[in-house]
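Data availability (excerpt). The following record was deposited with the supplementary files.
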Amino acid sequence: MTKTEPLAARDGLISRSLLRYAVIGASGVLLDYLLFLLLFNVIGLHPQLANAISTTAGITNNFVLNALFNFRKRDRILVRFLRFYAVGLAGIALTFLLLQVFSGWLGIDPNLVKAGSLPVVLIFQYAINKKWSFG
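Predicted structure:
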């Protein structure tokens, strides 16, 4: 079985690379959140500044781990990072759009919309990062 083959024939959509991407992404989300709490609640930074710093740290964490352990690409590192960062920002924008449409316009609970957006954004970002950032 190669790295990109499904884990099991019945799973079809779940490759090892996608699974690693999701686990790495979870580590970035945890880092982002904990750093935000530290910067905002302990250090007292403005919430928008704390968010910008913590989000950048989470995206950077994910880039480094994906470059080293998932996609295993180390050439053109600055270009790859800038692309990866742009995809991260696009994911934030997609989540914003989904929240606006489904919560703001259709009245669906934002908690449900956010939860539902996670797999959509994950697959969107994975596909773009696999082809564009690390292709």
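Summary of structural features: Residues 4-11 have pLDDT under 50 and may be disordered.
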